[in-house]
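Wed. Picked up where I left off yesterday with Vancomycin high temperature exclusion protein. The coffee machine is broken again, so keeping this brief.
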Amino acid sequence: MLHLLRRARAGGARWLRRPRLPRTRAGRRRLVQAGMAACVLALLPATWLRLAADGRLHTTADVPRTEVAVVFGAGLWDGEPSPYLAHRLDAAAELYRAGRIKVVLVTGDNSRADYDEPDAMRAYLARHGVPDARIVSDYAGFDTWDSCVRAREIFGVDRAVLISQGFHIRRAVTLCRAAGVSSYGVGVDDHHDVTWYYGGVREIFAAGKAALDAAFRPDPHFLGPREPGVRRALDGTRAPSAAR
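Structure written out below (tokens, as returned):
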């Protein structure tokens, strides 16, 4: 028994040994080249997003006048918009008060009864001067691609101002354009805290999924029938909500 334990420990020690670096100069050079190639491949989707959104990013002061703004969900704290989401909604309210948009489409997650991003977003906008009749709720915006596809296919939006944080807005603009929505982006400034840096790092990995979404154009998690909420809101009547 003791002999078997010693053999097991020896085998485990071999597995824990650090990998040996190549001993030859050529081997080390190939290892460095392989590492550099891996880094380049990993960053290609993020570079594509940056280039694809060039010329499409604006501020609340100079974004082109557009009938519809789309605000993406960014989490709730005790049922209220998180600070990051509140900043997005503040920008939408500012655009509405300035007459640069007419309707706000709020898109977020309502996959369970105790978590309702769109209704929280709608209530926040109403408290900040956007009439309820000018707000449309999409309850099945489970990710950026889903929100973009649903904006086009369900709500009939073909041109929009997108509002999000700076680290996310390029991906939003690129994906919405791939989904058939001619888009401009407003990147909301935020304090560079831990959440901001986390979001920036997350975007590097999310860029890969974005490239696959744009290439293969999968159906969203929930599609459903066409919904006239945006058109009715533009006409001045109360807009119903979709996919609840």
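Quick read: The first strand starts at residue 57 and ends at 58.
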